Amino acid sequence: MPRFGKKSKQKLETCDKRLQEIFNEVVKTVDCSILEGHRSEARQNELFKANKTKVRHPHGRHNHNPSLAVDVCPYPIDWMIEKDSIYLQGLY
């Protein structure tokens, strides 16, 4: 059965409990990785300046504490396909 790795667990812990519950169920049948949960002001504005999000801090759902948004992708990540994704550039 798929399960989250340490980094994914840490990122998911920054999210609202409801999102944690949902994705802890999802990972039981679909192997996936958590890319981002909560975003700091600096991170949100960095993504805004790079045109990778449409909102500045504090208007993003990722900016709540706990986060009301989570970025997820299938695991393993096929970097050849996903390299142009706005969410994957610069995260690792």
Write up what this structure looks like.
This protein has 92 residues and is of the alpha+beta class. The protein has one domain. Helix content is 33%, strand content 10%. The protein contains four helices and two strands; from the N terminus they run H-H-E-H-E-H. Strands 1-2 form a two-stranded antiparallel ribbon. The two termini are 25 Å apart.
Q: How do the strands and helices of this protein lay out in sequence?
A:
Elements: H1 6-12, H2 17-26, E1 32-36, H3 41-49, E2 71-74, H4 79-82
Q: Classify the beta-strand content into a percent band.
A: 5-15%
The neighbouring-strand order within the major sheet is 1-2
Gyration radius over CA? 13 Å
Query: How far is the N terminus from the C terminus?
Result: 25 Å
Helix content class:
25-40%
The largest sheet is: 2 strands, antiparallel
Shape annotation: globular
Please state the average pLDDT score: 89
SS-derived structural category: alpha+beta
Low-pLDDT runs of 5+ residues are none
> Number of domains in the coordinates?
1
H/E topology pattern: HHEHEH
* Strands, count: 2
Number of helices: 4
